[in-house]
Specification:
Elements lengths: L4 E3 L6 E5 L2 E6 L8 H13 L2 H10 L10 H11 L6 E5 L5 H10 L2 E6 L2 H13 L6 E5 L12 E7 L8 H11 E14 L5 H11 L6 H10 L2 E8 L1 H17 L1 H28 L3 E10 L1
Parallel strand pairs: 1-6, 4-5, 4-7, 5-6, 7-8
Antiparallel strand pairs: 2-3, 8-10, 9-10
Length: 295
């Protein structure tokens, strides 16, 4: 059985590349995007390619394509009330690691959305390989302009993905329409810590293509968008430990990585990880879990 998948098209298709290979045609909701978002899309597609996949698999922290271990995601999902029969939306689902983890553990239905063709293809393939195609759906599109099914989902889940979204308030408003009454936004992501300098904030935004802010700023945006914040927990120390362990694992697999993707790709991941670890150690970056309920 094929994995359920869809591409929402409002305007002409775009052929993009990741690494040095031509990918599938991108079918996204692009009617409202601007040139700067096209540039962001092209850069994300270039970065989130086969080398990225191997890098995070080499981290060996779990299955979620992030510096978060599986147990942490499941603990947060339980706190958010995800159970068998829940409908979960995962905008920015990457290659579907979180989607598959939730479907396996809770037997819930998960709809993943990602704008990078390589990740989308991987999500389809891996869901089918794991025999989760009846629970995990995949769509190729941009979460900021996606044509969401209305009042259909119990939870919208973010695990180190929405950091790439330039306009969180717009996303929160869109997700409010997709969530059922009482539905919840669940976030586990990176944030600026109180000690962050303007230089570090600018470097993070440039390196990660992010809309990063402080936890308090995020919760304020959620409240302005009609949500009630019911849980926050700082997780900076845990994520720092995860990054350290992941970087050590990646260095142990240096020969495999170099053989497949070359020195430039390996250096990019090692240097980015080392810089990120330094920012967490200086307490300029942190991580947090947030749960907010639709009013």
């Amino acid at each position: 059985m094929a994995v359920r998948c869809s591409g929402h098209v409002n305007e002409g298709d775009k052929t993009l590349t990741h690494g040095t290979q031509t990918t599938v045609t991108y079918q996204g909701s692009v009617a409202d995007t601007e040139t700067k978002n096209d540039d962001r899309l092209a850069t994300l597609v270039q970065n989130y390619d086969a080398a990225f996949r191997l890098a995070f698999e080499s981290f060996a922290l779990g299955t979620t394509d992030s510096p978060v271990r599986d147990g942490e995601v499941l603990e947060l999902a339980r706190r958010a009330g995800i159970t068998r029969g829940s409908r979960v939306l995962e905008p920015g689902s990457g290659s579907g690691g979180v989607s598959r983890l939730l479907a396996r553990e809770f037997k819930c239905d998960v709809q993943g959305i990602d704008l990078t063709p390589f990740q989308f293809e991987e999500a389809q393939r891996r869901a089918e390989t794991a025999a989760l195609q009846d629970l995990v759906s995949c769509s190729l599109g941009d979460m900021e302009v996606f044509d969401y099914e209305q009042e259909a989902y119990d939870v919208a889940m973010d695990v180190f993905s929405w950091i790439h979204v330039p306009d969180w308030q717009r996303l929160f408003s869109l997700l409010s329409g997709a969530l059922k009454p009482g539905g919840r936004i669940v976030m586990y992501d990176a944030f600026l810590a109180p000690a962050a300098t303007d230089e570090t904030a600018a470097l993070v935004r440039d390196a990660w293509l992010v809309r990063i802010c402080a936890v308090d700023d995020c919760t304020a945006l959620l409240e302005e968008s009609g949500y009630r914040v019911i849980h926050t927990q700082e997780r900076g120390r845990q994520v720092l430990d995860n990054w350290r362990g992941g970087l050590a694992n990646l260095r142990e697999k240096e020969d495999e990585f170099l053989g497949r993707f070359g020195e430039d790709a390996y250096r990019f991941f090692v240097e980015t990880s080392a810089w990120t670890i330094g920012a967490f150690e200086r307490e300029e970056l942190t991580a947090a879990q947030i749960i907010a309920e639709k009013a």
